[in-house]
Design brief:
By secondary structure, the chain is mainly α. It has a domain at 32-92: Dockerin domain (Type 1 dockerin domain). Helix content is 37%, strand content 0%. The chain contains three helices and no strands. Helix 2 runs antiparallel to helix 3. The N and C termini lie far apart (68 Å).
Length: 103
Amino acid sequence: MKKLICLVLVLCAALCAMPIVASSLEITVFTPGDVNVDRVVDEKDAELLLDYLGGVQSPEAKKPDVNRDGVVNNVDAVLLLQYLAGYDVTLYEDPDDGWTDNY
């Protein structure tokens, strides 16, 4: 019986000595119009989108497809500029439409 108690105590001590590793899950939420993914839709996003359409491939332009139709084009720029100007526009309809980045 003493051996069993000693074994249990040794196992408990060994488990207590093991480091606890915390794992974190990072979730990125897509904000419509947030081209540079800084969680703010502002003039910098419009600048990056217009540069992207002009052929300037900036690493900051992570989500240039504002309306999530799978194509980065002038429609995205117009929607974003209208949104920034205060017009009542919908940047995209369905956030769960199976859309993926393909640019």
